[in-house]
Write a structure and sequence with these properties.
mainly alpha
Length: 65
């Protein structure tokens, strides 16, 4: 009986993986791409941060390629 359960689990996992591969290659789900800003500036809005977070924070270098 344990081998039957093991076989069912393995076959189910294989079926799920094959279905995922089929959906990925079918074009139903498109690839995610980042939008390029027109002026080279990215505006960031921060919501819900405490005021001390900005007082103690240092600038973060960001490299955009």
């Amino acid at each position: 009986m344990k081998s039957d359960l093991y076989t069912k689990i393995v076959l189910t996992v294989i079926a799920i993986v094959l279905t995922g591969i089929l959906i990925k290659d079918s074009g139903i789900i498109s690839a995610a791409r980042a939008a390029k800003p027109n002026d080279g500036v990215v505006h960031v809005y921060i919501d819900g941060a405490s005021s001390t977070a900005f007082y103690l924070a240092e600038p973060i270098e960001v490299k955009v390629q």
